[in-house]
Design brief:
The chain is mainly α. Helices cover 73% and strands 0% of the residues. The chain has helices spanning 2-17, 20-24, 28-43, 47-60, 66-81, 85-98, 105-118, 124-130, 142-156, 159-167, 174-190, 194-210, 216-237, 239-244, 249-259, 269-283, 286-296, 308-319, 323-350, 354-367, 374-384, 387-408, 419-470, 476-496. The chain starts with a helix and ends in a 34-residue tail after the last helix.
Length: 530
Amino acid sequence: MRVFFRLAVLVLAVAVCLPDQAFANAQPGAFDIVVNEGKKLSSQKRYADAALVFNRVLSQGDDTQAAFQEAQYEMGVALFGLGLPVSAFTYFDYVGEKGSEHVRYYETLPWLLKIHQALPGETSSLLRMSAYPVESYPVDISDEINFYVGQYHYYAGNLDQALASFMRVGQSKPELYVKAMYFKGVVFVRKNDARAASRAFVDVLSYLDTHEVANESRYAVMANLATARVFYTVGHSDPEFIKAGKVNLPAFNKAVEYFDKVDQSSEYWLDSLFEKSWAYFMLGNYARALGNLITVNSPYFEEEYYPEGYVLRAVIFFMNCLYDEALETVDPFYKEYYEISKELKRVLAKYEDPASFYQYLASLSKSGGDQYSLKVKKIFNAALADRNLRRLFEYVVAINNEMDRVNAMASDPVAGQLVDFLVPSLEQYRSLTIAEAGQLARERLERISKELRELLSQALKVRFESLNAQKGIVSKDEQVEQLKDSASSARASGASLVVDSEHQLWPWNGEYWKDELGSYYYPIQSACEQ
Protein backbone atom coordinates (compact mmCIF):
# COMPACT_ATOMS: atom_id res chain seq x y z
CA MET A 1 0.00 0.00 0.00
CA ARG A 2 2.78 2.37 0.94
CA VAL A 3 4.65 1.66 -2.30
CA PHE A 4 1.54 2.36 -4.37
CA PHE A 5 0.92 5.65 -2.60
CA ARG A 6 4.47 6.87 -3.24
CA LEU A 7 4.16 5.84 -6.87
CA ALA A 8 0.85 7.74 -7.26
CA VAL A 9 2.37 10.88 -5.79
CA LEU A 10 5.32 10.55 -8.16
CA VAL A 11 2.99 10.26 -11.16
CA LEU A 12 1.09 13.34 -9.98
CA ALA A 13 4.26 15.35 -9.61
CA VAL A 14 5.46 14.33 -13.08
CA ALA A 15 2.05 15.07 -14.62
CA VAL A 16 1.78 18.52 -13.08
CA CYS A 17 5.33 19.45 -13.97
CA LEU A 18 5.25 18.20 -17.55
CA PRO A 19 5.66 20.89 -20.25
CA ASP A 20 2.39 21.85 -21.94
CA GLN A 21 3.08 19.90 -25.13
CA ALA A 22 4.14 16.78 -23.27
CA PHE A 23 1.05 16.92 -21.03
CA ALA A 24 -1.18 17.43 -24.04
CA ASN A 25 0.22 14.26 -25.60
CA ALA A 26 -0.26 12.21 -22.43
CA GLN A 27 -2.47 9.14 -22.56
CA PRO A 28 -6.06 9.45 -21.24
CA GLY A 29 -5.05 7.26 -18.31
CA ALA A 30 -2.70 10.02 -17.11
CA PHE A 31 -5.65 12.42 -16.97
CA ASP A 32 -7.58 9.92 -14.85
CA ILE A 33 -4.70 9.65 -12.38
CA VAL A 34 -4.39 13.44 -12.10
CA VAL A 35 -8.16 13.91 -11.63
CA ASN A 36 -8.19 11.28 -8.91
CA GLU A 37 -5.37 13.04 -7.08
CA GLY A 38 -7.27 16.33 -7.41
CA LYS A 39 -10.32 14.66 -5.86
CA LYS A 40 -8.17 13.41 -3.00
CA LEU A 41 -6.92 16.94 -2.35
CA SER A 42 -10.49 18.22 -2.47
CA SER A 43 -11.61 15.58 0.05
CA GLN A 44 -8.88 16.93 2.37
CA LYS A 45 -10.36 20.41 1.89
CA ARG A 46 -7.22 21.55 0.06
CA TYR A 47 -9.49 23.16 -2.49
CA ALA A 48 -6.98 25.60 -3.98
CA ASP A 49 -4.48 22.78 -4.65
CA ALA A 50 -7.26 20.66 -6.13
CA ALA A 51 -8.46 23.48 -8.40
CA LEU A 52 -4.93 23.92 -9.80
CA VAL A 53 -4.75 20.21 -10.58
CA PHE A 54 -8.16 20.21 -12.30
CA ASN A 55 -7.26 23.34 -14.27
CA ARG A 56 -4.23 21.54 -15.64
CA VAL A 57 -6.49 18.88 -17.13
CA LEU A 58 -9.03 21.43 -18.39
CA SER A 59 -6.37 23.53 -20.08
CA GLN A 60 -4.99 20.57 -22.05
CA GLY A 61 -7.84 18.11 -22.60
CA ASP A 62 -11.15 18.36 -24.44
CA ASP A 63 -14.76 17.79 -23.47
CA THR A 64 -15.03 14.46 -25.28
CA GLN A 65 -12.83 12.85 -22.63
CA ALA A 66 -14.44 11.40 -19.52
CA ALA A 67 -11.56 12.63 -17.34
CA PHE A 68 -11.99 16.16 -18.74
CA GLN A 69 -15.72 16.10 -17.89
CA GLU A 70 -14.90 14.75 -14.44
CA ALA A 71 -12.44 17.63 -13.96
CA GLN A 72 -15.13 20.16 -14.95
CA TYR A 73 -17.47 18.83 -12.30
CA GLU A 74 -14.79 18.53 -9.63
CA MET A 75 -13.53 22.04 -10.38
CA GLY A 76 -17.00 23.36 -9.58
CA VAL A 77 -17.01 21.40 -6.31
CA ALA A 78 -13.56 22.73 -5.32
CA LEU A 79 -14.41 26.36 -6.12
CA PHE A 80 -17.64 26.12 -4.15
CA GLY A 81 -15.58 24.75 -1.27
CA LEU A 82 -13.38 27.85 -1.55
CA GLY A 83 -16.47 30.03 -1.08
CA LEU A 84 -16.58 31.10 -4.74
CA PRO A 85 -20.10 30.14 -5.89
CA VAL A 86 -20.12 32.39 -8.98
CA SER A 87 -16.92 30.83 -10.28
CA ALA A 88 -18.19 27.37 -9.34
CA PHE A 89 -21.31 27.88 -11.41
CA THR A 90 -19.20 28.61 -14.49
CA TYR A 91 -18.00 25.00 -14.44
CA PHE A 92 -21.34 23.47 -13.48
CA ASP A 93 -22.81 25.45 -16.35
CA TYR A 94 -20.47 23.62 -18.74
CA VAL A 95 -21.91 20.37 -17.39
CA GLY A 96 -25.47 21.59 -17.88
CA GLU A 97 -24.70 22.71 -21.41
CA LYS A 98 -23.45 19.23 -22.30
CA GLY A 99 -26.60 17.70 -20.83
CA SER A 100 -27.14 14.02 -20.12
CA GLU A 101 -24.10 13.14 -22.27
CA HIS A 102 -21.89 14.53 -19.51
CA VAL A 103 -20.60 11.89 -17.11
CA ARG A 104 -21.58 14.02 -14.10
CA TYR A 105 -24.78 15.60 -15.38
CA TYR A 106 -27.15 14.17 -12.77
CA GLU A 107 -24.72 14.65 -9.88
CA THR A 108 -24.59 18.35 -10.76
CA LEU A 109 -28.25 19.01 -9.95
CA PRO A 110 -27.77 19.30 -6.14
CA TRP A 111 -24.89 21.71 -6.72
CA LEU A 112 -27.07 23.93 -8.89
CA LEU A 113 -29.48 24.09 -5.97
CA LYS A 114 -26.62 25.06 -3.62
CA ILE A 115 -25.45 27.73 -6.07
CA HIS A 116 -28.88 29.35 -6.21
CA GLN A 117 -29.30 29.23 -2.45
CA ALA A 118 -25.90 30.93 -2.07
CA LEU A 119 -26.76 33.51 -4.77
CA PRO A 120 -30.53 34.22 -4.61
CA GLY A 121 -30.33 36.93 -7.29
CA GLU A 122 -28.77 34.52 -9.79
CA THR A 123 -31.17 32.85 -12.24
CA SER A 124 -28.97 30.90 -14.69
CA SER A 125 -28.89 27.95 -12.29
CA LEU A 126 -32.70 27.89 -12.41
CA LEU A 127 -32.55 27.59 -16.20
CA ARG A 128 -30.23 24.61 -15.86
CA MET A 129 -32.36 23.01 -13.12
CA SER A 130 -35.49 23.33 -15.23
CA ALA A 131 -33.96 21.05 -17.89
CA TYR A 132 -33.72 18.04 -15.57
CA PRO A 133 -36.52 15.45 -15.67
CA VAL A 134 -38.61 15.44 -12.50
CA GLU A 135 -37.79 11.79 -11.81
CA SER A 136 -34.10 12.71 -11.48
CA TYR A 137 -34.68 15.01 -8.50
CA PRO A 138 -33.02 13.58 -5.35
CA VAL A 139 -35.76 12.78 -2.84
CA ASP A 140 -34.25 14.80 0.01
CA ILE A 141 -34.15 18.03 -2.01
CA SER A 142 -37.00 17.50 -4.46
CA ASP A 143 -39.25 20.06 -2.76
CA GLU A 144 -36.62 22.80 -3.06
CA ILE A 145 -35.93 21.98 -6.71
CA ASN A 146 -39.64 21.92 -7.56
CA PHE A 147 -40.10 25.30 -5.91
CA TYR A 148 -37.19 26.97 -7.71
CA VAL A 149 -38.09 25.41 -11.05
CA GLY A 150 -41.62 26.71 -10.50
CA GLN A 151 -40.20 30.18 -9.90
CA TYR A 152 -38.18 29.93 -13.11
CA HIS A 153 -41.22 28.98 -15.19
CA TYR A 154 -43.32 31.67 -13.50
CA TYR A 155 -40.89 34.46 -14.38
CA ALA A 156 -40.48 33.02 -17.88
CA GLY A 157 -44.25 33.17 -18.37
CA ASN A 158 -44.73 29.39 -18.53
CA LEU A 159 -47.68 29.45 -16.14
CA ASP A 160 -48.92 25.88 -16.54
CA GLN A 161 -45.43 24.46 -15.99
CA ALA A 162 -44.95 26.78 -13.02
CA LEU A 163 -48.22 25.61 -11.48
CA ALA A 164 -47.27 21.96 -11.98
CA SER A 165 -43.94 22.51 -10.21
CA PHE A 166 -45.50 24.36 -7.27
CA MET A 167 -48.13 21.61 -6.92
CA ARG A 168 -45.32 19.07 -6.42
CA VAL A 169 -43.87 20.91 -3.41
CA GLY A 170 -44.66 18.90 -0.29
CA GLN A 171 -44.81 19.82 3.39
CA SER A 172 -41.37 18.57 4.40
CA LYS A 173 -40.31 22.19 4.91
CA PRO A 174 -43.30 24.27 6.10
CA GLU A 175 -41.90 27.66 5.04
CA LEU A 176 -41.15 26.40 1.54
CA TYR A 177 -44.62 24.86 1.34
CA VAL A 178 -46.22 28.20 2.27
CA LYS A 179 -44.18 30.00 -0.37
CA ALA A 180 -45.25 27.45 -2.98
CA MET A 181 -48.94 27.85 -2.02
CA TYR A 182 -48.56 31.63 -2.27
CA PHE A 183 -47.00 31.36 -5.72
CA LYS A 184 -49.85 29.09 -6.81
CA GLY A 185 -52.21 31.93 -5.96
CA VAL A 186 -50.08 34.40 -7.91
CA VAL A 187 -50.11 32.08 -10.93
CA PHE A 188 -53.91 31.88 -10.76
CA VAL A 189 -54.03 35.69 -10.65
CA ARG A 190 -52.01 35.86 -13.85
CA LYS A 191 -54.33 33.25 -15.37
CA ASN A 192 -57.31 35.50 -14.44
CA ASP A 193 -58.79 32.81 -12.21
CA ALA A 194 -59.82 34.94 -9.22
CA ARG A 195 -61.72 32.15 -7.47
CA ALA A 196 -58.76 29.75 -7.52
CA ALA A 197 -56.39 32.55 -6.54
CA SER A 198 -58.41 33.57 -3.50
CA ARG A 199 -58.67 29.91 -2.42
CA ALA A 200 -54.90 29.55 -2.65
CA PHE A 201 -54.26 32.64 -0.52
CA VAL A 202 -56.87 31.61 2.04
CA ASP A 203 -55.16 28.19 2.17
CA VAL A 204 -51.92 29.99 3.05
CA LEU A 205 -53.63 31.77 5.94
CA SER A 206 -55.29 28.55 7.16
CA TYR A 207 -51.97 26.70 7.08
CA LEU A 208 -50.26 29.48 9.02
CA ASP A 209 -52.96 29.24 11.69
CA THR A 210 -52.27 25.57 12.31
CA HIS A 211 -48.52 25.16 11.72
CA GLU A 212 -45.25 26.56 13.03
CA VAL A 213 -43.69 28.47 10.14
CA ALA A 214 -40.61 30.68 10.11
CA ASN A 215 -41.38 34.28 9.06
CA GLU A 216 -45.05 33.54 9.61
CA SER A 217 -46.13 37.18 9.99
CA ARG A 218 -44.54 38.17 6.69
CA TYR A 219 -46.32 35.43 4.76
CA ALA A 220 -49.61 36.29 6.45
CA VAL A 221 -49.24 39.89 5.32
CA MET A 222 -48.42 38.82 1.78
CA ALA A 223 -51.44 36.50 1.65
CA ASN A 224 -53.81 39.12 3.08
CA LEU A 225 -52.56 41.77 0.66
CA ALA A 226 -52.84 39.40 -2.30
CA THR A 227 -56.38 38.41 -1.27
CA ALA A 228 -57.35 42.08 -0.98
CA ARG A 229 -56.06 42.70 -4.49
CA VAL A 230 -58.03 39.76 -5.84
CA PHE A 231 -61.27 41.10 -4.38
CA TYR A 232 -60.47 44.60 -5.67
CA THR A 233 -59.92 43.19 -9.17
CA VAL A 234 -63.18 41.22 -8.94
CA GLY A 235 -64.94 44.44 -7.94
CA HIS A 236 -63.85 45.98 -11.22
CA SER A 237 -64.29 43.01 -13.50
CA ASP A 238 -67.43 41.14 -12.37
CA PRO A 239 -69.48 40.96 -15.60
CA GLU A 240 -72.85 40.82 -13.83
CA PHE A 241 -72.30 44.11 -12.04
CA ILE A 242 -70.77 45.73 -15.12
CA LYS A 243 -73.79 44.70 -17.21
CA ALA A 244 -76.16 46.10 -14.58
CA GLY A 245 -74.15 49.33 -14.35
CA LYS A 246 -73.59 48.83 -10.62
CA VAL A 247 -70.60 48.81 -8.31
CA ASN A 248 -69.70 45.45 -6.77
CA LEU A 249 -69.88 46.72 -3.19
CA PRO A 250 -69.38 43.31 -1.52
CA ALA A 251 -66.11 42.72 -3.40
CA PHE A 252 -64.72 46.16 -2.52
CA ASN A 253 -65.78 45.74 1.11
CA LYS A 254 -63.94 42.40 1.23
CA ALA A 255 -60.91 44.10 -0.28
CA VAL A 256 -60.97 46.70 2.52
CA GLU A 257 -61.33 43.93 5.09
CA TYR A 258 -58.15 42.22 3.90
CA PHE A 259 -56.23 45.48 3.40
CA ASP A 260 -56.98 46.24 7.06
CA LYS A 261 -55.12 43.07 8.09
CA VAL A 262 -51.79 44.45 6.86
CA ASP A 263 -50.04 45.70 9.99
CA GLN A 264 -48.28 49.07 10.12
CA SER A 265 -44.99 47.34 10.94
CA SER A 266 -45.04 45.56 7.57
CA GLU A 267 -42.93 46.67 4.61
CA TYR A 268 -46.14 46.44 2.57
CA TRP A 269 -48.21 48.68 4.82
CA LEU A 270 -47.92 51.87 2.75
CA ASP A 271 -48.84 49.97 -0.42
CA SER A 272 -51.89 48.52 1.30
CA LEU A 273 -52.93 51.93 2.63
CA PHE A 274 -52.69 53.49 -0.81
CA GLU A 275 -54.51 50.65 -2.55
CA LYS A 276 -57.19 50.73 0.13
CA SER A 277 -57.79 54.37 -0.82
CA TRP A 278 -58.93 53.19 -4.24
CA ALA A 279 -61.25 50.60 -2.68
CA TYR A 280 -62.79 53.32 -0.49
CA PHE A 281 -63.14 55.50 -3.59
CA MET A 282 -65.05 52.77 -5.39
CA LEU A 283 -67.29 52.40 -2.32
CA GLY A 284 -67.96 56.14 -2.32
CA ASN A 285 -66.30 56.49 1.07
CA TYR A 286 -64.35 59.60 0.11
CA ALA A 287 -63.63 60.63 3.69
CA ARG A 288 -61.67 57.44 4.29
CA ALA A 289 -59.97 57.59 0.89
CA LEU A 290 -58.79 61.16 1.47
CA GLY A 291 -57.72 60.31 5.02
CA ASN A 292 -55.46 57.52 3.76
CA LEU A 293 -53.96 59.83 1.15
CA ILE A 294 -52.97 62.27 3.90
CA THR A 295 -50.69 59.53 5.26
CA VAL A 296 -49.37 58.46 1.84
CA ASN A 297 -48.45 62.06 0.97
CA SER A 298 -47.00 62.87 4.40
CA PRO A 299 -43.37 64.01 4.89
CA TYR A 300 -42.57 60.59 6.37
CA PHE A 301 -42.83 59.13 2.87
CA GLU A 302 -41.68 62.06 0.74
CA GLU A 303 -39.19 59.89 -1.17
CA GLU A 304 -41.79 57.27 -2.04
CA TYR A 305 -43.44 57.25 -5.44
CA TYR A 306 -47.26 57.40 -5.36
CA PRO A 307 -48.21 60.06 -7.94
CA GLU A 308 -51.66 58.51 -8.52
CA GLY A 309 -52.60 59.60 -5.00
CA TYR A 310 -52.71 63.26 -6.01
CA VAL A 311 -54.84 62.53 -9.07
CA LEU A 312 -57.26 60.45 -6.99
CA ARG A 313 -57.51 63.25 -4.43
CA ALA A 314 -58.25 65.82 -7.15
CA VAL A 315 -60.87 63.57 -8.76
CA ILE A 316 -62.67 63.14 -5.42
CA PHE A 317 -62.83 66.90 -4.93
CA PHE A 318 -64.07 67.38 -8.47
CA MET A 319 -66.77 64.73 -8.07
CA ASN A 320 -68.01 66.63 -5.01
CA CYS A 321 -67.99 69.98 -6.86
CA LEU A 322 -65.11 71.28 -4.68
CA TYR A 323 -63.32 72.86 -7.61
CA ASP A 324 -61.00 75.13 -5.63
CA GLU A 325 -59.72 72.13 -3.67
CA ALA A 326 -59.32 70.15 -6.89
CA LEU A 327 -57.17 72.91 -8.40
CA GLU A 328 -55.17 73.29 -5.19
CA THR A 329 -54.32 69.60 -5.48
CA VAL A 330 -53.68 69.41 -9.21
CA ASP A 331 -51.50 72.49 -9.67
CA PRO A 332 -48.65 71.63 -7.26
CA PHE A 333 -48.83 67.97 -8.33
CA TYR A 334 -48.46 68.91 -11.99
CA LYS A 335 -45.59 71.27 -11.24
CA GLU A 336 -43.62 68.68 -9.23
CA TYR A 337 -44.26 65.65 -11.40
CA TYR A 338 -43.82 67.49 -14.68
CA GLU A 339 -40.29 68.23 -13.47
CA ILE A 340 -39.84 64.57 -12.51
CA SER A 341 -41.09 63.54 -15.96
CA LYS A 342 -38.57 65.88 -17.60
CA GLU A 343 -35.75 64.55 -15.41
CA LEU A 344 -36.74 60.99 -16.22
CA LYS A 345 -36.75 61.76 -19.94
CA ARG A 346 -33.32 63.39 -19.62
CA VAL A 347 -31.87 60.40 -17.77
CA LEU A 348 -33.24 57.93 -20.32
CA ALA A 349 -31.79 59.98 -23.17
CA LYS A 350 -28.39 60.42 -21.49
CA TYR A 351 -27.83 56.81 -20.49
CA GLU A 352 -28.94 54.84 -23.53
CA ASP A 353 -26.39 52.06 -23.06
CA PRO A 354 -27.68 49.48 -20.52
CA ALA A 355 -24.31 49.28 -18.74
CA SER A 356 -24.06 53.05 -18.31
CA PHE A 357 -27.66 53.15 -17.13
CA TYR A 358 -26.84 50.55 -14.50
CA GLN A 359 -23.82 52.59 -13.35
CA TYR A 360 -26.07 55.64 -13.00
CA LEU A 361 -28.54 53.78 -10.77
CA ALA A 362 -25.70 52.13 -8.86
CA SER A 363 -24.22 55.55 -8.09
CA LEU A 364 -27.56 56.59 -6.60
CA SER A 365 -27.65 53.45 -4.50
CA LYS A 366 -24.09 53.77 -3.16
CA SER A 367 -24.43 57.43 -2.23
CA GLY A 368 -27.91 57.04 -0.82
CA GLY A 369 -28.88 59.79 -3.24
CA ASP A 370 -27.67 62.50 -0.83
CA GLN A 371 -26.33 64.71 -3.60
CA TYR A 372 -29.40 64.27 -5.76
CA SER A 373 -32.72 66.06 -5.72
CA LEU A 374 -35.85 64.56 -4.21
CA LYS A 375 -37.32 63.97 -7.65
CA VAL A 376 -34.30 61.85 -8.66
CA LYS A 377 -34.65 59.80 -5.47
CA LYS A 378 -38.27 59.13 -6.40
CA ILE A 379 -37.12 57.90 -9.81
CA PHE A 380 -34.65 55.57 -8.15
CA ASN A 381 -37.24 54.23 -5.69
CA ALA A 382 -39.68 53.66 -8.53
CA ALA A 383 -37.06 51.66 -10.43
CA LEU A 384 -36.08 49.48 -7.50
CA ALA A 385 -39.71 48.70 -6.68
CA ASP A 386 -39.23 45.98 -9.29
CA ARG A 387 -38.13 42.85 -7.37
CA ASN A 388 -36.43 41.27 -10.38
CA LEU A 389 -34.30 44.37 -10.78
CA ARG A 390 -33.39 44.39 -7.09
CA ARG A 391 -32.30 40.76 -7.36
CA LEU A 392 -30.04 41.56 -10.31
CA PHE A 393 -28.50 44.47 -8.41
CA GLU A 394 -27.85 42.14 -5.47
CA TYR A 395 -26.28 39.60 -7.81
CA VAL A 396 -23.86 42.18 -9.23
CA VAL A 397 -22.86 42.99 -5.64
CA ALA A 398 -22.27 39.26 -5.03
CA ILE A 399 -20.04 39.04 -8.12
CA ASN A 400 -18.08 42.10 -6.98
CA ASN A 401 -17.60 40.55 -3.54
CA GLU A 402 -16.33 37.33 -5.10
CA MET A 403 -13.89 39.25 -7.29
CA ASP A 404 -12.55 40.93 -4.15
CA ARG A 405 -12.09 37.51 -2.51
CA VAL A 406 -10.27 36.14 -5.56
CA ASN A 407 -7.98 39.16 -5.84
CA ALA A 408 -7.20 38.87 -2.12
CA MET A 409 -5.73 35.41 -2.88
CA ALA A 410 -2.97 36.93 -5.01
CA SER A 411 -0.48 37.00 -2.12
CA ASP A 412 -0.98 33.29 -1.35
CA PRO A 413 1.70 31.15 -3.10
CA VAL A 414 -0.83 28.42 -3.99
CA ALA A 415 -4.25 30.09 -4.19
CA GLY A 416 -2.69 33.09 -5.96
CA GLN A 417 -2.30 30.93 -9.08
CA LEU A 418 -6.09 30.79 -9.38
CA VAL A 419 -6.40 34.53 -9.93
CA ASP A 420 -5.25 34.51 -13.55
CA PHE A 421 -7.98 32.18 -14.81
CA LEU A 422 -10.81 33.07 -12.42
CA VAL A 423 -10.83 36.87 -12.66
CA PRO A 424 -11.41 37.07 -16.47
CA SER A 425 -14.46 34.80 -16.18
CA LEU A 426 -15.84 36.85 -13.29
CA GLU A 427 -15.32 40.10 -15.20
CA GLN A 428 -17.17 38.69 -18.21
CA TYR A 429 -20.00 37.42 -16.01
CA ARG A 430 -20.27 40.78 -14.25
CA SER A 431 -20.44 42.62 -17.59
CA LEU A 432 -23.28 40.40 -18.79
CA THR A 433 -25.20 40.80 -15.52
CA ILE A 434 -24.71 44.58 -15.49
CA ALA A 435 -26.00 44.79 -19.05
CA GLU A 436 -29.05 42.68 -18.12
CA ALA A 437 -29.74 44.80 -15.03
CA GLY A 438 -29.33 48.03 -16.98
CA GLN A 439 -31.67 46.86 -19.72
CA LEU A 440 -34.31 45.79 -17.21
CA ALA A 441 -33.97 49.12 -15.38
CA ARG A 442 -34.40 51.06 -18.62
CA GLU A 443 -37.50 49.07 -19.53
CA ARG A 444 -38.91 49.61 -16.05
CA LEU A 445 -38.35 53.38 -16.12
CA GLU A 446 -39.62 53.68 -19.68
CA ARG A 447 -42.90 52.15 -18.44
CA ILE A 448 -42.92 54.54 -15.47
CA SER A 449 -42.25 57.46 -17.81
CA LYS A 450 -45.21 56.46 -19.99
CA GLU A 451 -47.49 55.99 -16.97
CA LEU A 452 -46.43 59.34 -15.54
CA ARG A 453 -47.21 61.12 -18.80
CA GLU A 454 -50.67 59.56 -18.72
CA LEU A 455 -51.18 60.73 -15.12
CA LEU A 456 -50.12 64.24 -16.04
CA SER A 457 -52.62 64.15 -18.89
CA GLN A 458 -55.35 63.07 -16.46
CA ALA A 459 -54.36 65.86 -14.08
CA LEU A 460 -54.64 68.42 -16.87
CA LYS A 461 -58.08 67.07 -17.71
CA VAL A 462 -59.22 67.48 -14.09
CA ARG A 463 -57.79 71.00 -14.09
CA PHE A 464 -59.54 71.88 -17.35
CA GLU A 465 -62.88 70.46 -16.15
CA SER A 466 -62.56 72.23 -12.78
CA LEU A 467 -61.90 75.60 -14.42
CA ASN A 468 -64.87 75.09 -16.72
CA ALA A 469 -67.06 74.09 -13.79
CA GLN A 470 -66.09 77.27 -11.93
CA LYS A 471 -67.43 79.15 -14.93
CA GLY A 472 -70.63 77.11 -14.85
CA ILE A 473 -69.72 74.98 -17.83
CA VAL A 474 -70.55 71.42 -16.75
CA SER A 475 -72.16 68.81 -18.99
CA LYS A 476 -75.42 67.18 -17.94
CA ASP A 477 -73.73 63.77 -17.79
CA GLU A 478 -71.12 65.15 -15.39
CA GLN A 479 -73.80 66.76 -13.25
CA VAL A 480 -75.68 63.45 -12.95
CA GLU A 481 -72.46 61.62 -12.10
CA GLN A 482 -71.48 64.22 -9.52
CA LEU A 483 -74.88 64.10 -7.81
CA LYS A 484 -74.80 60.30 -7.71
CA ASP A 485 -71.28 60.24 -6.28
CA SER A 486 -71.90 62.97 -3.74
CA ALA A 487 -75.00 61.12 -2.47
CA SER A 488 -72.97 57.93 -2.20
CA SER A 489 -70.23 59.84 -0.36
CA ALA A 490 -72.71 61.29 2.11
CA ARG A 491 -74.08 57.85 2.96
CA ALA A 492 -70.62 56.28 3.30
CA SER A 493 -69.22 59.14 5.37
CA GLY A 494 -72.12 59.17 7.73
CA ALA A 495 -71.92 55.44 8.40
CA SER A 496 -68.21 54.67 8.47
CA LEU A 497 -66.74 56.68 11.36
CA VAL A 498 -67.16 54.94 14.69
CA VAL A 499 -65.16 56.15 17.71
CA ASP A 500 -65.06 53.71 20.63
CA SER A 501 -64.21 54.37 24.28
CA GLU A 502 -60.49 53.69 23.69
CA HIS A 503 -60.08 56.30 20.96
CA GLN A 504 -60.58 60.01 20.57
CA LEU A 505 -61.46 62.09 17.55
CA TRP A 506 -58.77 64.77 17.33
CA PRO A 507 -58.78 67.67 14.82
CA TRP A 508 -55.80 67.64 12.45
CA ASN A 509 -53.95 70.97 12.20
CA GLY A 510 -51.47 70.04 9.49
CA GLU A 511 -48.89 68.55 11.84
CA TYR A 512 -47.87 64.93 11.28
CA TRP A 513 -47.27 62.51 14.15
CA LYS A 514 -45.99 59.02 13.52
CA ASP A 515 -48.54 57.34 15.76
CA GLU A 516 -51.37 59.04 13.84
CA LEU A 517 -50.36 57.68 10.44
CA GLY A 518 -53.09 55.61 8.84
CA SER A 519 -55.84 56.94 11.11
CA TYR A 520 -56.74 60.17 9.30
CA TYR A 521 -60.31 60.86 8.31
CA TYR A 522 -61.20 63.71 5.96
CA PRO A 523 -64.88 64.65 6.35
CA ILE A 524 -66.08 65.98 3.04
CA GLN A 525 -69.32 67.86 2.34
CA SER A 526 -70.41 67.84 -1.27
CA ALA A 527 -71.00 71.27 -2.80
CA CYS A 528 -73.02 69.90 -5.69
CA GLU A 529 -76.51 71.33 -6.01
CA GLN A 530 -79.15 68.74 -5.13
